[in-house]
Amino acid sequence: MSARLIDGKAEAAKLRGRVKDAAAALKAAHGLTVGLGVLLVGEDPASQVYVRNKGIAAREAGLHAVERVLPATASEADVLAEVAKLNADPAVHGFLVQFPVPGQIRQTAVIDAIDPAKDVDGLTPVNAGLLVSGRQGLVPCTPWGSLLLAREAAGDLSGLNAVVIGRSILVGKPMAQLLTNDSCTVTLAHSRTRDLPALCRTADILVAAIGKPGFVKADWVKPGATVIDVGINRIDLGNGKTRLVGDVEPAAAEIAGAMTPVPGGVGPMTIACLLRNAVVAACHQTGIAVPAGI
Q1: Most exposed among 97, 184, 224, 240, judged by the fewest C-beta atoms under 10 Å?
Q2: All residues at 6 or more sequence positions from 14 whose CB lies less than 8 Å from its CB, including other chains
Q3: Residue 168 CB contacts under 8 Å (≥ 6 apart), including other chains
Q4: Going from the N-terminus, what domains does the chain have, and what CATH number goes with each?
């Protein structure tokens, strides 16, 4: 068996197209221009690339993109003040703070300062609580994109066994909740899980989000399972060359029924879902129905 590769680029392009259509419809019918903001603290090269790509994607989708940058020496008070400005800006319907932030700034303090209505990363306690309770809120982008890819590959997820490896607030925990809301039977595994390989072999849907290259071995995968590899790890090949790899070793593709590649799997979906969240946030704030299809 050789797994069908789940084309995240193609699925992301479809979603971005629907977002673009929705943004155009909102502007035409209601005069609403959806605004998406990003706050970057410091000069981390990878973060600068992420922020630039998000701005490009927002503008291509017809959104108003706002980019704010603070120096790496900024204090926590400086960052919280900038968050307050974005909270109050009526032209910005949703925004995120690009993590990680410098060590002098508490990530939890930043998250707690974000208006939940504008929390397009879905990290505030309010949005996390809405997700757990099964109510409408803003959902973290990477888990939402991962769920869409799992649905595309496996169809109806109801009744399937799912294992999520990793319990971060950004991916693991919300991913487990989303799968639960889709009527999967879910196990959230982590570094202290006993006999993790045996547990993974029970999974019809296996989500790896642990941040360790090749951590999940091929013989951990149930034949025919759908594998969602969230990991993006840069490994050194020597001579100044690097390569992006996932949390699942490539040989797993010979056992899985469907599997996301790295790169080109979950990554493109994350930005597409960010754009989608901005449109959803704008609709909720203005009392306009969310356009169908996103």
Answers
A1: 240
A2: none
A3: 209
A4: 29-119+266-294 (3.40.50.10860), 141-263 (3.40.50.720)
Residue with tokens 């390569």: 243
Please write the tens of the pLDDT for every residue from 175-192: 999 999 999 999 999 989
Q: Using CA atoms, how far apart are residues 237 and 141, in angstroms rounded to an integer?
A: 30
Give tens-digit pLDDT for 17-41.
999 999 999 999 999 999 999 999 9
Q: Which of 54, 118, 173, 222 is catalytic?
A: 54
Give the integer Cα–Cα distance in Å for 184 and 177.
10
Q: Exactly one of 115, 118, 119, 121 is catalytic; which is it?
A: 121
Q: What is the residue whose two structure tokens read 């909720």?
A: 284
Q: Is 285 a catalytic residue?
A: no
The catalytically annotated residue of 98, 115, 204, 222 is: 98
DSSP type of residue 129: H
Is position 98 annotated as part of the catalytic site?
Answer: yes
Check if 136 is active-site: no
